[in-house]
Specification:
Largest interface: B-C, 36 and 32 residues
Oligomer: heterotrimer
Number of helices of chain A: 6
Strand content of chain B: 15-25%
Number of strands of chain A: 5
Shape of chain A: elongated
Strand order of the largest sheet of chain B: 15-14-27-26-25-16-17
Largest sheet of chain B: 7 strands, mixed
Number of strands of chain B: 37
Shape of chain B: globular
Strand content of chain A: 5-15%
Order of helices and strands of chain A: HEHEEHEEHHH
Radius of gyration of chain A: 25 Å
Chains: A alpha+beta, B alpha/beta, C alpha/beta
Number of helices of chain B: 27
Structural class of chain A: alpha+beta
Chain lengths: 198, 816, 436
């Protein structure tokens, strides 16, 4: 290696690197190539029971556990007419502020019903403060096979303990009918409203 | 270590009582004889677990959580019930394995049938059972059988919910209801593990039911109102004072962000002990109900939002023009500091003595009575009340009108057989619970009853320490206040005046009455005027020299002005100057005033009306300028309770768009280019304190004597009426669960009176005047004939607006 | 030791319960005698006699009476506890049925002694017969002038109220009985104050068992030395023994204290069908069990305690070897669980827990850990509960485990009904309906 003048030695580094293997990750074009590790702490998710009722009971223990004060919860009473979770109480308001969240997972440990878990989703940046405060509808797990959206009654003959014991495996026909009936009524009301508006 | 504190009085009192010395965990402790071990241990810093033993209830020793070992006793003893004896050697869980084991065993038992629903339980986070389980309980249970379950909460009243699974049968609630409130509407039912709290056929509609929630050591009793709304760790707690009545309860206001979540009784042994009433506890939603968020000004007959500077400019201009011809009506709900600011503003900025805080029925005697007997004085106190051998109640229903006074009287009746005598038309439920002797009185003619007081009652009152309590309603009975004051002079009994509203006593002390300057100074006394003028930095000559108009006189003067203007206009003359050109009104509810129609007309007719209000009202409807002011949670201040005791409270949370009344008045003074009045509470308090109470003469000029007892004809009756604790008052709005516990509205008459108009018990009786009719189911009551009692402001019975009558008026009865 | 029929002496009369029959056998003479004596002397006599309470605790009766403050200006009350509900106890009800006037005479004498003018007889609500009989007898005595105003010219006024309970074992506890009598929920009261100071309606009150009060007229009539000839120094006098269980002739045998169970068993014709005693209880289900080893123990308050049990109500129950210990104890605990008043935690929750666990054992589903845990749980109740009901419930298990551990261990897998034929243990097999 000849002794280059100092002014040129910097260019030598550039020149040499041109012929080395490229390390650039093609994100976001190729993001599937790099899945997060199994225990990665991503966006939170509010889980559901097998019939679609929410697991969250609005107990606020997650908010209590949160060292960053990122979680805001307000509970409310399940009524016979409007049931969102088994048992007495559900989370009416559920917000996580991802500007504050440090993804430590203490909230997950605190959750007594396994309602709150973390997904692998990490694309949480956005261009507005309010856009990164996730509301309950942003956090709720999608309805999977066999689930119907609350509010609806518990599986007939079951109570909240049976849900915790895992005895509920999916929505029953009765629950489906109830939800369809409610939906039909809402649709009817909407149509009447539109009729009245016209 | 001893139980005596540094306080001199306490030390002296302690010297008189017999003391015993025992040893707890190796530490000697000296306590008054009769102190139970659990309290003595507290003095040594040893906390013995307990569930059934709050200090103010009689011991029951049911929960067994507090078992300790006493040397020489074969079995562990309940420390909540065993009194410390001289030379007794006690070992608590800290030094005795037996005690620790016994307590752990009880803990284990308590948990076998207790549900694991702490996450959804309202008590979770502030639960004695939870705390105890976390500190001393076993992490694992040995109990593997099925827990007993009950259907989840049941309503025992519209407000109180009972979750029987969580109950640990400590009986605090049933004992409270029985011993303290005297409303044993809840009781244990069933037995063994199936034992539960239950109600009879009637719901738990006690005025004090909310206390059971607070003393419940588990989450078995919760309120419908607070259910699932927050967790204890969300809440910021501020010590406050209740604004609902003159009892002066210390409260703890718990808020989350900018909303009050709940209010609880704060322990104040001098005043409310550990209790408060359901109104004070639950009636707070009104604080955030349809609040005025900014100033309004009237333009083309319509109110429109305006900026603070614009509204203040307008108000100041209008009031400035009316200087000397204005009047100030302040209601009875202001803090002492705000009331003082009004008193000062009226006398200085408006150069008038036309100021009256009494938005209610008033009498000719009252101003003189308040000025000479009440303003700037102190006492009798709760402690004197509790110690009194006898108490005479005049036109005052403690349970309805000042519930903590009621609780103190009941405690005295229960503990040392205090004799309560009530001058009233009939023995009310509250009087019955006080085992009160009734001196029957026709409403309006209480003075006669006082003059003809039975000799044995007089003898009772002559015992040293006796107390006479006069309610604000006595003002409407001619001569009654004078008779009560005379009786106090003759018997040596203490005389106390108990208004209904929290702000009245403070307004009296700070001079919100015509003819009365702060500290009980008579306006007509030049020396008093000089003291006040120098404190206010004005010339003594600038203060009004003759007493101004009270509320009815202001209303009458405005009506007279209108008549004069009209007749002048008819005759084409130039109208003479009005007596009242502007009104400054704060916190007045028109329907509280007996002839509210006249008041409303005056509000409409007065040339310029400024209203300082928290929410739209009948007054703001007519106002030219509306300035929004803060509610109690948004400001600091002081309520003066009926004793004359100051009850300062702190601000819970601010609301950016409003100011306290005193601050608005200071701003107005600025706009009027007057010397700045103090605007913050510490400065106001300092000025009130520097003025102090008047040391000179307090004349009570000749007042109206007793009138003749009304003599209703056939089909007529004399109206008796008072406000029930829970009624349709605007400060109870927005709380349907509390409203559900109201007493049903009934009319009360004697059997003969009911028979006279042919209305059987339970049927509807109509009570009418020329203005309207109230029809209510009749409840035959043991009372003098020719009297009908109606609730004053309950649903279906609004005496002031429907009948436009005051107690003592004659009304017509009939069958509906 | 011979039988000494005193209270039961004339029960073979065709109408022993009538006033006539009672008077024929010397009834109400003690009353006349007592009313001529100073009340304090009556108390002294009873004190000297050494009569001890027959309700279970064995507290000296005269001493109890002397606790009543005198000249305090308050009314005094006598309450007779006839709420006999202890499993196995059946002595007060027969006394009230067969010899009601002895009780009434005893009441009048007692009221004279303690200066009471109101007495109450609180009788177990499930047994209407003695209630009716006592009501009739009280009316009879009243008509004869033994009750009412100025009894026998002594100046004593006395009324007796016969009150039926509502069927709660706890109301046999004296303070719960007083609450019940006042019309409240029957739950034991905090002591002190003791009933002698503030009992019924917060006035000085003596609460005594039916048998105790029924013994009083005989002591007055026959004298202290006659009484003390029977029994022992510390447990003098006669006692009505109600022997029940697997004996040939169950029934009531009146004999002095100090008689042995073996002697009583001989009077009762031995264990049925020539079988052997497996275990026996000296006085109701609330006392620890004893075995055949203790048949020679004198039945006195002291000796039975020394043997590891308690005399209790003095109503021995004997069980032969057809009996499942597991099932017997489960049955008793089911009773205590049902009867626990619920006031205090150890008894309320403890009886619920123990009984639930015992029921598992009875069904052959116990576990080794639970065998030991139960001892511990019983210890958590014993001495920790508000009144003696909790102690009673915690009593049976531990002695049974000490004596019959193998049976408990068998119950880990074998249901009690398999180990012991339910039909064989029935006293009246035709009524069993089980296993037959």
């Amino acid at each position: 290696m000849p002794e280059l003048p100092p002014a040129l030695s910097g260019f030598w580094v550039t020149f040499r690197t041109q012929f080395q293997k490229v390390n650039t990750e093609q994100y976001p074009e190729q993001k599937d190539k790099f899945p997060p590790k199994p225990r990665f702490h991503g966006r939170h998710q509010l889980n559901r029971w097998a019939d679609g009722l929410e697991k969250c009971v609005g107990c606020e223990l997650c908010a209590w556990a949160c060292p960053a004060d990122a979680i805001y919860v307000q509970g409310a009473d399940n009524s016979e007419a409007q049931r969102f979770s088994p048992g007495e109480r559900y989370g009416r308001v559920y917000q996580i502020n991802y500007l504050r969240c440090i993804f430590c997972g203490l909230c997950i440990e605190a959750c007594p019903t396994r309602a709150l878990t973390m997904t692998h989703e990490y694309e949480l940046a956005d261009n507005g403060r309010e856009k990164v405060i996730f509301e309950k509808q942003d956090l709720l797990a999608p309805l999977r096979e066999g689930m119907v959206p609350p509010p609806h009654a518990m599986v007939a003959g079951m109570d909240s303990h049976d849900y915790y014991m895992g005895k509920v495996t999916g929505a029953t026909e009765q629950q489906r009918e109830e939800v369809q009936h409610e939906e039909a009524q809402r649709e009817e009301a909407r149509r009447q409203d539109q009729g009245a508006a016209q | 270590m001893t139980a005596t504190s540094n306080d001199k009085d306490t030390a002296q009192a302690a010297a008189e009582v017999e003391m015993v010395t025992g040893v707890i965990d190796g530490h000697e402790v000296t306590v008054p004889k009769g102190t139970v071990i659990i309290r003595a241990a507290e003095l040594t810093g040893v906390d013995i677990p307990r569930f059934c033993a709050p200090p103010l209830l009689d011991p029951v020793a049911a929960c067994r959580a507090c078992l300790i070992e006493v040397e020489g006793m074969p079995k562990p003893q309940p420390s909540c019930a065993v009194e410390l004896g001289d030379g007794m050697v006690v070992h608590t869980q800290l030094t005795s394995e037996v005690a620790a084991k016994a307590q752990a065993g009880v803990m284990e038992f308590l948990l076998i049938n207790h549900p694991l629903d702490c996450p959804v339980c309202d008590k979770g986070g502030e639960c004695p059972l939870q705390n105890q389980a976390m500190t001393t309980g076993n992490p694992e249970t040995r109990y593997t059988l099925q827990k007993l379950t009950f259907p989840k909460p049941i309503n025992i009243s519209t407000e109180i919910l009972l979750d029987r699974e969580r109950c640990v049968m400590c009986q605090r609630c049933t004992r409270f209801a029985d011993e303290i409130a005297g409303d044993p509407f809840i009781e244990l039912v069933q037995r063994g593990a199936h034992q539960q709290i239950g109600i009879g056929e009637e719901p738990f509609d006690s005025y004090f039911s909310g206390n059971t929630i607070q003393i419940c050591p588990v989450g078995a009793l919760t309120s419908a109102d607070y259910r699932f709304r927050a967790r204890p760790f969300d809440l910021v707690s501020v010590p406050t004072t209740c604004e609902h009545c003159a009892s002066g309860c210390s409260l703890r206001t718990d808020y989350r962000h900018d909303a009050v979540m709940r209010r609880q009784a704060w322990d104040d042994p001098e005043v409310n002990e550990e209790w408060n009433c359901d109104k004070g506890r639950f009636a707070f939603p009104y604080l955030s109900l349809d609040r005025l968020s900014g100033p309004l000004v009237r333009e083309d007959g319509e109110l429109r939002p305006a900026s603070w500077p614009e509204a203040l400019r307008l108000a100041a201009d209008g009031l400035g023009r009316a200087r000397g011809r204005a009047a100030v009506l302040t209601g009875g709900r202001l803090t002492m500091e705000d009331a003082y600011a009004y008193a000062r503003f009226a006398r200085t900025a408006l150069a008038t003595d036309n100021i009256d805080m009494r938005a209610r029925a008033i009498g000719p005697d009252e101003a003189g009575f308040l000025a000479s007997q009440v303003a700037g004085t102190c006492g009798p106190t709760y402690a004197q009340l509790a110690a009194a051998p006898a108490v005479l109640l005049v036109a005052f229903e403690p349970e309805e009108e000042s519930p903590i006074v009621f609780l103190r009287l009941r405690k005295a009746v229960r503990q040392h057989g205090q004799q309560v005598v009530t001058v009233a038309p009939y023995p009310s439920h509250g009087s019955t619970k006080l085992s009160a002797t009734l001196v029957p009185a026709v409403p309006g003619a209480e003075a006669h009853s006082l003059a003809a007081l039975p000799a044995d009652v007089r003898d009772l009152l002559q015992q040293p320490g006796s107390v006479i309590l006069v309610g604000e309603r006595a003002a409407t009975a001619p001569g009654a206040l004078r008779a009560a004051a005379d009786l106090a002079d003759q018997t040596g009994a203490h005389l106390g005046w108990i208004p209904r509203r929290a702000g009245e006593r403070g307004a009296v002390d700070t001079g919100c009455l015509p003819g009365l300057l702060p500290g009980g100074r008579p306006l007509t006394d030049p020396a008093a005027r000089r003291e006040v003028a120098s404190a206010w930095g004005v010339a003594a000559d600038d203060l009004p020299t003759s007493a101004g108009l009270d509320l009815p006189a202001v209303v009458a003067a405005i009506a007279a002005d209108v008549a004069t203007r009209r007749s002048a206009a008819e005759q084409g003359d130039e109208a003479p100057a009005n007596t009242i050109d502007a009104l400054l009104v704060a916190g007045v509810e028109a329907s509280d005033v007996p002839h509210s129609d006249a008041l409303l007309r005056a509000l409409q007719d007065v040339p310029f009306l400024v209203s300082l209000e928290t929410r739209p009202s009948e007054v703001t409807d007519f106002a030219d300028v509306v300035l929004p002011v803060s509610v109690v949670t948004e400001k600091e201040g002081t309520f003066v309770d009926w004793e004359g005791r100051r009850r300062p409270f702190a601000r819970s949370f601010p609301l950016a768009t409003t100011f306290p009344d005193a601050e608005v008045l200071a701003l107005l003074a600025d706009y009027l280019d007057l010397d700045a009045a103090p605007r913050d509470v510490p400065a106001l308090r300092a000025e009130i304190d520097s003025l102090g109470a008047w040391g000179g003469e307090r004349p009570w000029p000749g007042a109206a004597g007793a009138t003749d007892t009304p003599n209703p004809g056939p089909g007529e009756a004399v109206l008796a009426s008072w406000r029930l604790l829970l009624d349709r008052g605007i400060m109870q709005e927005g709380e349907p669960y509390l409203a559900g516990t109201r007493q049903p509205s009934v009319a009360r008459v004697s059997a003969a009176t009911a028979a006279g108009v042919g209305v059987p018990d339970g049927e509807r009786l109509s009570v009418s005047t020329d203005h309207g009719t109230i029809a209510l189911p009749v409840e035959i009551t043991e009372m003098p004939d020719g009297i009908v009692w109606l609730p004053m402001n309950s649903p279906e019975s609004r005496v002031t607006t429907t009948l436009r009558a005051t107690p003592g008026d004659t009304v017509r009865l009939g069958r509906e | 030791m011979p039988l000494t029929p005193v209270i039961t002496a004339h029960w073979d009369d065709p109408h022993s319960y009538t006033l006539d029959s009672y008077r024929r056998h010397g009834g109400y003479t003690a009353l006349a005698q007592a009313l001529k004596t100073d009340p304090d002397e009556v108390i002294a006599t009873v004190k000297e006699s050494g009569l001890r309470g027959r309700g279970g605790a064995g507290f000296p009766t005269g001493l109890k009476w002397s606790f009543v403050p005198q000249n305090d200006g308050r009314p005094h009350y006598l309450v007779v506890n006839g709420d006999e509900s202890e499993p196995g106890a059946c002595k007060d009800i027969p006394i009230m049925l067969a010899n009601p006037h002895a009780l009434i005479e005893g009441i009048v004498i007692t009221c004279w002694a303690i200066r009471a003018s109101h007495a109450f007889i609180y009788i177990r609500g499930e047994v209407p017969m003695p209630i009716r009989r006592m009501q009739k007898s009280v009316a009879e005595a009243r008509a004869a002038g033994y009750l009412g105003k100025n009894i026998l010219g002594s100046g004593l006024d006395l009324e007796i109220v016969v009150h039926g309970g509502a069927g709660a074992y706890i109301c046999g506890e004296e303070t719960a009985l007083l609450d019940s009598l006042e019309g409240r929920r029957g739950q034991p009261r905090l002591k002190p104050p003791f009933p002698a100071v503030a009992g019924l309606y917060a006035s000085p009150t003596v609460v005594n068992n039916v048998e105790t009060i029924s013994s009083v007229p005989y002591i007055i009539k026959n004298g202290v030395s006659w009484y003390r000839e029977m029994g022992t120094e510390k447990s003098p006098g006669f006692k009505v023994w109600a022997v029940s269980g697997h004996v040939t002739r169950p029934g009531i045998y009146e004999a002095p204290l100090g008689i042995t169970m073996g002697e009583l068993l001989d009077y009762a014709g031995g264990i049925r069908d020539g079988r052997d005693v497996k275990f026996w209880l000296p006085g109701g289900s609330s006392v620890p069990m004893l075995t055949a080893d203790h048949l020679d123990t004198p039945m006195t308050y002291e000796a039975i305690v020394d043997a590891g049990s308690m005399l209790g109500t003095g109503t021995p129950m004997l069980f032969d070897e057809t009996t499942s210990v597991v099932k017997a104890i489960t049955r008793w605990l089911e009773f205590y669980r049902h009867e626990s008043c619920g006031k205090c935690t150890p008894c309320r929750e403890g009886t619920y827990w123990i009984t639930g666990t015992l029921e598992k054992f009875q069904e052959g589903r116990g576990s080794q850990d639970e065998i030991e845990d139960l001892v511990e749980i019983c210890n958590q109740i014993m001495g920790r509960s508000f009144c003696a009901l909790g102690d009673a419930a915690a009593t049976p298990y531990a002695p049974s485990l000490a004596l019959f551990r193998s049976e408990w261990e068998a119950a880990l897998t074998q249901p009690a009904d398999e180990a012991f034929d339910p039909a064989a243990t029935m006293i009246i097999p035709s009524m069993s309906g089980v296993g037959a």
